[in-house]
Specification:
- This protein is mostly beta strands and about 140 residues long.
- Helix content is about 5%, strand content about 55%.
- It is built from one helix and 14 strands, in the order ββαββββββββββββ.
- The strands form three sheets. Strands 1, 4, 10, 11, 12 and 13 form a six-stranded antiparallel beta sheet that branches. Strands 2-9-8-7-14-3 form a six-stranded mixed beta sheet.
- A hairpin with a 2-residue loop joins strand 10 and strand 11.
- The longest helix is centred in the first third of the chain and has 10 residues.
């Protein structure tokens, strides 16, 4: 009997807010959209690859509805980090529980996990809790 098992590794996700002097230029420079879901349905899962440039994972600006956050992959310790927010997004509305980044404010919420499967690139999983839009920029 041949059994095939696929291993999924969920990365630790940390909150490591950098000062605006660091995050604002990154928010402004991440303008190339590489993922767009204009009609994301509440409680449905959306998965896409993390952006890569010159063989390295680059900063990703994730936009869910009107909420913008800046994600960073830290290869040194293999963790994903919420590096900061863009625009007027409130950083205090984010928390991390069980390797999941959670956002909740004024009745709007979503969850983010970062993972990879055996021999696959790093991926981002978004679970919106409201009907909304999802975009990712590099």
């Amino acid at each position: 009997m041949n059994v095939f098992a696929l291993y999924i590794i969920i990365l630790d996700l940390i909150i490591a807010i950098a000062p605006p002097s660091t995050t604002e230029p990154l928010c402004n420079s991440t303008t190339t959209r590489y993922y767009h879901q204009p009609a994301a349905v509440a409680d449905s899962v959306y998965i896409f690859s993390w952006a890569v440039s010159s063989g390295a994972y680059v900063h990703t600006r994730l936009v869910v509805g009107g909420v913008q956050c800046l994600l960073e992959y830290r290869a040194s310790d293999q963790k994903a980090a919420l590096m900061g927010t863009c625009g007027s997004t409130d950083a205090s509305a984010f928390s991390v529980q069980d390797k999941t980044l959670k956002y909740q404010k004024n009745g709007f919420s979503f969850e983010v996990q970062c993972f990879y499967e055996e021999d696959s690139p790093l991926k981002i999983k978004v679970l919106p809790r409201n009907n909304t839009t999802i975009e990712a920029f590099r």
